[in-house]
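@channel anyone free to eyeball this complex?
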Amino acid sequence: MKILLFGSTGSIGRTSLEVIKRDRDLKVLGLCTYRNTNLLLKQIKEFMPKYICVIDKKEGLDFKKYIPKNCKFFYGESGLEEFCTLKSDISIMGISGISCLKPLIKNIPYTRRVALANKESIVIAGDFVFKEALKYNTEIIPVDSEINALFQLLKKFNCNDFNRIYITASGGALFDYKISDLKNVTLKKVLSHPTWNMGKRITIDSSTLVNKAFEVIEAHYYFNIPFEKIDIVIHRESKIHALLELKDNTIFACVYDNNMSIPIGFSIYYPKLFLSKNRIDFKNKFYFSFQPLDRKTFPLFYLILDAKKRDDNSLVLLNAWDEIAIDYFLNKKINFLGIHRALNYIFKNYPKGKIEKLEDIFYWDNWARVKAKEYLERLC
Amino acid sequence: MKILLFGSTGSIGRTSLEVIKRDRDLKVLGLCTYRNTNLLLKQIKEFMPKYICVIDKKEGLDFKKYIPKNCKFFYGESGLEEFCTLKSDISIMGISGISCLKPLIKNIPYTRRVALANKESIVIAGDFVFKEALKYNTEIIPVDSEINALFQLLKKFNCNDFNRIYITASGGALFDYKISDLKNVTLKKVLSHPTWNMGKRITIDSSTLVNKAFEVIEAHYYFNIPFEKIDIVIHRESKIHALLELKDNTIFACVYDNNMSIPIGFSIYYPKLFLSKNRIDFKNKFYFSFQPLDRKTFPLFYLILDAKKRDDNSLVLLNAWDEIAIDYFLNKKINFLGIHRALNYIFKNYPKGKIEKLEDIFYWDNWARVKAKEYLERLC
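replying in thread with the prediction:
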């Protein structure tokens, strides 16, 4: 099985390589990173891919000299486009943010299966992505644990006849805070996710529950579930990833250890089973807690879902502003509530636009990034 | 759908009638009770069955005059045998103890489906029961919630490729007691099951975990699962009834409210869904706890499974002694540990015998009842 790995040096990429190296039948066809060439070099030595791509042009130029002779090297945006046309059995999409959308769309015709860890491309462009996948008969398997768990529940039960699905939410790093306490919360605190070790943006999105709103939208696109049938339940332990309530009120829960190797392995091996090393051991004493989501503490969760309802460019703008605001917070230029302020601002003050083609998304995404920076500079 | 209800005045019978009366398409063809004719009379007036059976001969003779003219009445052992040959779509077997075995075997040829709430007939005579069911192409659907949950998990996943199954155990009324505290425990305390409202014998069997050992044996027979793949986990809340751990360590849990109408409804409607009124509402705050079984507190659990391994008449004897000892305890003739003493005694001092045909079971069951009474009278 030839695997193309997009975002190889990120959290998903690194875990994917851990899974791949356990099985001789899985071959890394190509590795692609944005610009972490130090780690990329180590990965090249270990996995000996035939194709290598560095998306950042400058970094790519500098890195060229390290490429082994029998490898083909791509760099920059045009290099990435070429890299996307390599034929693979599975493409693992571990690029974070909306930057995943272009390579995803470009790559769909050339792979048999996408193991998709990226949320934004579905949240913002779900219709386009699934249309493309249908056109080229490419499977898209969700890696995101909650959506992956839903995939397992819905596929295995082969069931459309349900009352509702529940997506679980750990509640993130700030669950026990009140909104009034959030002004001076430190970056370190926000990045200390209680149950998952993930990339920085997703960890911060988890603390605002923007991430969870994205998952609701993902579930809608992946499985064609109306929003009124999708519920959230706070489950601090992150062991149950999703629940399916049938018409008879019987609930089936999908439970696995909170280690991303499991859904990544699932996405590679499905319909075969990935032999994960992580088990939940019932020889220990433990509990699973459940509580409803408190509307007041997580206003951005509802903001994102409200934006989705507008069915225009609103969600594209919010996603871009969220990404930029998080960058500013990560660079300690704004405080945590600055993210809230920025998203509330653009939610209320935005120029309406229609999203009819993929280019509209890129147009509004670019526009939003410029405007977000202008706004955030004033906040600094 | 014509339903024959065995044990109509017991806990399972009464709940079954609650389910049946919600659906005009479900017709009570016949009602059968051991001797609770007061309640039976009310049930006859409400459900107007064509056939009525009172198993106790004396009680039956007395009751004869109350039978409506358009009804056929059966009583005594021979009456029960005739009642068993009535053709039905579903037979609900709610008779408790080994007395269910004969009517079950007699009835299998004449019904399309048995909704089986009785454990003992499977635990003691699983091979005979399933052979008969196969011969007459009669479905047997388990009503017992844990086994019912396993049925749902294994059927819907259509999966033989699992690491293990877990049967959950509430731990019963005496879970927080030490074995040394049990001598003077009151009947009232033993009957106060934390989560289920059930018949008396099963409630007491829950407090010793004999009931749970029976479920392990049931799971073995129903689904052909080797004993080493069946685990127990203490789950005090009785909302998760069973869990299935696949080869990839992903676990699927079957969750429903601890109300017997749900598995009874399931057994009637399957593969259609029973529209239960009981929901687990995630708008509330709650938790599910898990802990391993403590070997020392529940010696009878292991005793029963050890008896099963002997593959002789041992389990027949233990079941009979358990039933008789519980009668003595219910009549306050012995204390709670008397049940332990009796079962330990017969486990150690029993005449080995082979179970080759159904008659062997009845022979050893009768023998055991006589001997149990002799032993228990001395204990009084």
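from a first look: Chain A has a mean pLDDT of 95.
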